[in-house]
Amino acid sequence: MDSLPLPLPGQSLLARFLTPEVFETLKDRETYFGVRLSHLIASGVKNPDSAIGVYAGDEESYTAFAPLLDPIIQAYHGLGPEDRHVTDLNPAHLEAENPDPEGRFVLSTRIRVARNLCCFPFGPVIGRRERRMAERAIVGALGTLEGELAGTYHPLPSLDEATRARLVKEHLLFKAGDRFLEAGGFNRDWPDARGVFMNAERTFLVWVNEEDQLRIISMEKGADLGRVFARLARALAVLEARLTFARSERLGYLTSCPTNLGTGMRASVHIRLVRLPEQEVQAIAEDHGLQVRGTHGEHTAAEGGVYDVSNKRRLGITEVEAVTQLAEGVSALIRAERGA
Ligand code: ADP
Ligand code: CIR
Questions:
Q1: CA 297-302-306 angle, 5° bins
Q2: Cis-peptide, bond into residue 191, ω within 30° of zero
Q3: Domain edges within the chain
């Protein structure tokens, strides 16, 4: 990529931080896996309505393209160049209580973390053979899970259309990447080497080779955040012993979208708030550092007053803090709904 009309249109962090100087500095760089600036910015250039607009193509992208990615990371997570990410996945450190013990508002709770395998390229540039190698390594590790966590891996190509659609509707399975991921190159060779691992109760899931190589998910009905977190922590301890995840001391776990760096964690509830106006839901969520999504995830609408509320920041706070932040925000939303 030799030139680009700058500034890019739109409000994305990419448009804000890709100055002519940064472009000049980065335009000829290439990582070991062949990631270039054009890979990083493809999604945001094609989709001027992006919020962020970039995806990293591998671990090295975060150092090679730091003059673009560092300001984006700082703007989204509030992490400065000198800050260090700290992990705390110890469920004993979580003091937050169930914010809805009577089960009146919260339908379900889900905590997911994003992970990629060390030394593999990420979704934007990974090849068919490497994707299959990653799948094989991940499925091998999942096969060692025991007890409540034991389950079955379902390769996406093996699912008939009705089953696939039902699992998506039940929030258990991902869809093909949306236009943001499509433009970022994530849908290449779809559905080859993608799949989902599910335990018998469907409270523990792993999505393989979607936006990240692993999305490790603990979920259940109700609002028992502590139980959902403890299950996730148990699974992570087993998987970390078998797999080496891409990670940096400064940025924590490395993910394709910079919004997921650090903890890689999105802790969310589905909460029904029929009395509070949507603007108030948004305002209270924002005050508590939370993000509101629709009933079927990112870039979907809230149906029947059911919102997906989750921690926005994933880097520069620990996993325990992210879940605590969610518990506090959800309690505030419930208080406001009761008073509305
Ligand atoms: P991700 O969380 O993996 O970044 P999405 O926002 O697309 O991506 O959500 C993935 C799926 O998880 C969607 O079907 C979404 O509705 C579902 N989901 C998210 N939070 C919850 C929750 N608390 N309970 C049930 N399903 C949820
Ligand atoms: C965008 O830039 O809008 C898309 N690439 C999606 C970014 C991920 N969104 C988020 O807040 N996690």
A1: 95
A2: yes
A3: 13-76, 91-339
Q: Which atom of ligand 2 is the closest one to the Cα of 51?
A: 3
Provide DSSP, 282-319: HHHHHHTTEEEEBTTBTT---BTTEEEEEES--SSS-H
Q: Could you tell which of 171, 186, 221, 259 is best to mutate to test the pocket of ligand 1, judged by most ligand atoms within 8 Å of the CB? A: 171
Q: What is the pTM of this model?
A: 0.96
DSSP 42: H
What is 91-339's CATH number?
3.30.590.10
Is residue 129 annotated as a catalytic residue, yes or no? no
One of 1.10.135.10, 3.40.30.10, 2.170.270.10, 1.10.3720.10 is the CATH number of 13-76, namely: 1.10.135.10
User: Do 13-76 and 91-339 come out as alike in CATH topology?
Assistant: no
Take residue 36 and report the two structure tokens written for it.
Answer: 């270039």
The catalytically annotated residue of 259, 263, 318, 324 is: 259
- What average pLDDT score do residues 83-94 get? 92
Return the SS3 of 151: strand
- Cα of 304 to ligand 1 centre, how many Å? 16
* Cα 66 to Cα 225: distance, rounded to the nearest angstrom: 35
Q: What is the pLDDT of residues 198-234, one digit of tens each?
A: 999 999 999 999 999 999 999 999 999 999 999 999 9
Question: What are 104-161's pLDDT values in tens digits?
Answer: 999 999 999 999 999 999 999 999 999 999 999 999 999 999 999 999 999 999 999 9
**Residue owning tokens 């896996």:** 33
